[in-house]
Amino acid sequence: MKTNITTATHVHTVNTAAEAREQVERHVSQGYTRDQLFVLAHDKDRSERLTEQTATEQIGLEEEGLGTAVANIFRSRGDKLRAKMRSVGIGADEAERLEQMLDQDKIIVIAWSGKSYESDDDYDPYINYYPPFLV
């Protein structure tokens, strides 16, 4: 059986907007649709600019679910980012590490499989991280 790459979630940590655009275009060429692609930065304005520049989507109500979306109204930026990452299948430990990377002014590019995760205990154990996390 042939595996379709777009059924897996890929998470890239990059340094610049140009690298983010490059990753987005690579994922589009692999068959991901732009509504499966998310670009995150710690600064909200930067995140919105990157989303606009790459013609990608923001992780919103459809991916998060109503409960997380409402709770995010009252959360800090870091807590919101971790919750958004969790909603697309990134585990708690990985979301924490990625949020620390965002604190260091990195950019996160997510090519999402399309499966939502609403439970705090539910995550996708098959996500590919680039560069890989070393434990």
UniProtKB/TrEMBL annotation:
It comes from the Bacteria. Residues 11-104 form the General stress protein 17M-like domain. It holds the Pfam family YflT. This is General stress protein. It comes from Paenibacillus mendelii.
